[in-house]
């Protein structure tokens, strides 16, 4: 299976996914695509000999469909079977999502369905939650809403800030995403639940 990974920033999840696809793993990364030419993950991918593509969203303004057609154009030669969104900060239209229905995953830093959208760690702290975590799900047109493929939980500790909590969650993201992708590629969509 050929996997495309979409990033917008440092790409720490992309790196773990990429480094997990070795040996008898039935998938390989065919391209890392970013909307941000300055994404640090692009260099990490290039260091590992993985093709990269940059599709900036700014030239398209509110024309998200135009942006997405440029993405499809950039993807064409790489022929991905699966798309993994990993810190990709653009919202995709229902048209694009439905074209990749059942073949596109995302990682979100909360225990969905709680805290869809942004600033998840601050919101969990503000709510006084004692447990938080991350979710890998299939992407559907509704934001952060598709079938859950895996979750990892972490405790919220006294004195936590959004930063300390995010760091604890990120460690689990790096374990969960590769695990879920390996199962997904093997056709196993039964959700997995981890306790970090
Ligand atoms: C992570 O918190 C992830 O949950 C979210 O984007 C953040 C950065 O991810 N999707 P990465 O380091 O760029 O993979």
In helices, the fraction of residues equals 25-40%
Structural class: alpha/beta
Radius of gyration using CA atoms only: 16 Å
Cα end-to-end separation: 29 Å
Strand order of the largest sheet: 3-2-1-4-5-6-7-8
Q: What is the overall number of helices?
A: 6
Sheet having the most strands: 8 strands, mixed
| pLDDT averaged over residues | 97
- The total of beta strands comes to 8
Strand content: 15-25%
Low-confidence runs: none
The SSE string, one letter per element, is EHEHEHEHEHEEHE
Bound molecules: 5-O-phosphono-beta-D-ribofuranosylamine
Tell the overall outline. globular
Organism: Roseobacter denitrificans (strain ATCC 33942 / OCh 114)
Catalytic activity: N(1)-(5-phospho-beta-D-ribosyl)glycinamide + (6R)-10-formyltetrahydrofolate = N(2)-formyl-N(1)-(5-phospho-beta-D-ribosyl)glycinamide + (6S)-5,6,7,8-tetrahydrofolate + H(+)
Binding site for (6R)-10-formyltetrahydrofolate: 56, 89-92, 106
Site (Raises pKa of active site His): 144
Explain this structure.
With 196 residues, the protein is an alpha/beta fold. Helices cover 34% and strands 23% of the residues. The chain has six helices and eight strands. It has helices at residues 12-20, 40-47, 64-76, 94-99, 120-126, 162-185, and strands at residues 2-7, 28-34, 52-54, 82-85, 104-108, 131-138, 148-155, 192-195. The chain has an eight-stranded mixed beta sheet with strand order 3-2-1-4-5-6-7-8, sandwiched between helices. Helix 5 crosses helix 6. The longest helix has 24 residues, at 162-185. It starts with a strand and ends with a strand. The structure holds 5-O-phosphono-beta-D-ribofuranosylamine. Residues 7, 9-14, 86-87, 107, 109, 134, 170, 173 line the site of 5-O-phosphono-beta-D-ribofuranosylamine (GRF).
